[in-house]
Amino acid sequence: MASVFRSEEMSLMQLFLQVEAAYCCVAELGDLGLVQFRDLNANVNSFQRKFVNEVRRCESLERILRFLENEMEDVVEIVKLETYPETPLPREMIDMETVLEKLEAELLEANQNQQTLKQNFLELMELKHLLKKTQDFFEVRDLSSHRDRERMIPFERLLWRACRGNIYLRYTEMDTPLEDPVTVGTQVKKNVFIIFYQGEQLKQKIKKICDGFRATVYPCPESATERREMLDGVNTRIEDLNTVITQTESHRQRLLHEAAANMWSWEIKVKKIKAIYHILNCCNIDVTQQCVIAEIWFPVADAGRIKRALHQGMERSGSTITPILTTIHTRMAPPTFNRTNKFTAGFQNIVDAYGVGNYREMNPAPYTIITFPFLFAVMFGDCGHGAVMLGFALWMVINEESLLAQKSTNEIWNTFFSGRYLILLMGIFSMYTGFIYNDCFSKSFNIFGSSWHIIPMFKNNTWNKEVLLDNTVLQLDPAVPGVYSGNPYPFGIDPIWNIASNKLTFLNSYKMKMSVVIGIVHMIFGVILSLFNHIYFKKYINIILQFIPEMIFIICLFGYLVFMIIFKWCHFDVHSSQSAPSILIHFINMFLFNYSDASNAPLYLHQKEVQSFLVIFALIAVPWMLLIKPFILRANHQKAQRMVRDVGHARGFRVAKAKLRHQTSRSFNFGDTFVHQAIHTIEYCLGCISNTASYLRLWALSLAHAQLSEVLWTMVMHNGLNNSSWVGLIVVFIIFAAFAVLTVAILLVMEGLSAFLHALRLHWVEFQNKFYVGAGYKFSPFSFKHIIDGTAED
């Protein structure tokens, strides 16, 4: 369970592999996905590394595979297997190269032949249409041609001007469009035209203009007999070409289907091979060229699995030399690795988005699983909206396997889907807080019956018909027997507040105080978590000189504010609420040491003494945090230096001297230490004030959501339900559709996103800054699964 609350314990080891076994061992580690390789050749150009030629060969294979995939697009479906193929051996790469290069050559040849045949077919079809359209003119020479319809008018205008009107042009549209052989599948609409002219000079001009407009020119026989004979010959050639084109396309389709059966497997294998050689390029080769040396980070808990994977790689390669692992003692900060599953991954991503935690420091993610959706729900609390959100999340969770199989590339959808369990909890907590607020689409439930009753006001003759007519607003008097039952509503806000004119005043007061209580408890919990960091890292001086004064400061001031709020809630009931003092005035007077305000009665006996003691104790905590720690650190540093000098004069203590020098090797600057401590003290003391105020956003967002929900109901749905005619039966469906769209767009999406961002802020700043440094770097293991899925980090 320790790995849930802290990152995994990591180990840095040097790995020695025989050159012949290196490939297979790295492949096994890639399948395992628990090892991060350090780049030992960071200063070496990527083109000068050992296995650069193998990487280039893989890139060449990827180019061929992309070509094949483009050829198969919308034509042949690529077959995908349920499991990934095994990593091929280096010698299998040669066979794969041979197969793919041969397949590429055959496809290129088939494509070229097909394009040539289709070009011939196009020309014959054009000639066929030309011969059909040509009229029998005599004693005049002519040129016949084909031209795209879009440029026919400019072509005609240019011919007329260049030849000074000494030609006769006649054209007509072709009945059927023709396929362009270059851009496969594109239909081209053309015109057939014939030009009559006289003289060689006009012939040369006409040919140049036709070439400029890319018109296809054909000589047209003058006699009808020759045209019929030519047309018969063209028809025969078209039939032969059709047969050849069909056979060529059939051969091409056969090649694509054969490739499609192995296409997915080839892509996975090439990705694996390329990834392995990238890793080998990060390793060193010894001077004998017989040993590969790598440095790897891995979780200590998985050492056994890693050794078994290396042994399997050795056996697969046929090597007899066992891989050697030796521990490296280093002062480098290890990477941070927090194990997650599909449920906890979303919450861990929220934490890591702000900053990856330092190695082995407390991980906020387990607590965020509860606190994040809860704080979101405090701002978003509504049973109806929470139920809609819960339904959406349940749909994603139930159908997650089929949705994952689709592998959508839509970034917005992927963001929602990856946070499906977060949305699920947000929906559940929103329904819970909705019941607390007794709010469902701005309306209240009356499940247990209100604790307030109106009838006793009439029985007591306090209210009567004249009072009802003369007053628009009436107030219930709890002093009248039977008006208040004596017990509050069993769960949540009493539904009678939904019709009260001072509803907003009451809810504002309640939610504001509740936000302060939740915020201060959340911050105190963050300070308590810092204690576990100090204990784990054995920084006991921080416990006495940082944690204890921090707790004293926040509890004496803000913890006492929470006490006053809860005490007032519990001590004053409906009968004594009019005499309840103001907490705000008491809290301000606490810092001013002003207790002479007769209009604001004390909450309890000896309040003056208690508050004076708490303020003085909180003030003592400030210099406690600020001054003592820098001086103690300086004294410890001076003591260590004296010990280095004393030990240096004695013989036989070289090891102790070296250790002491290592401990004091880092330079100590008293000025920097004091300034750093002063910044921390000021930031903490002012932060307690500003962070407490920041938690009031819980009240503000909750108020905004409730008001928007009420406005939407009043302005839209209420109008549809008020119409009692037969037309209203139809109108209510239209009104409900508009109400549903506006609810989803405004209250669920916009307000939900706003509450989500504010909950992020409260966790990242107000909560995590009490104990979380977040200056580490993430563990990025070499994993085939991440590489193939495209989730591997650079």
UniProtKB/TrEMBL annotation:
It is found in: Membrane. Keywords: Coiled coil, Hydrogen ion transport, Ion transport, Membrane, Transmembrane, Transmembrane helix, Transport. The chain crosses the membrane at residues 369-398, 418-437, 516-537, 543-567, 610-633, 726-750. Residues 51-120 form a coiled coil. One of its GO terms (molecular function) is proton-transporting ATPase activity, rotational mechanism. One of its GO terms (biological process) is vacuolar acidification. Belongs to the V-ATPase 116 kDa subunit family. This is V-type proton ATPase subunit a. It comes from Chrysolophus pictus. The lineage of its organism: Eukaryota, Metazoa, Chordata, Craniata, Vertebrata.
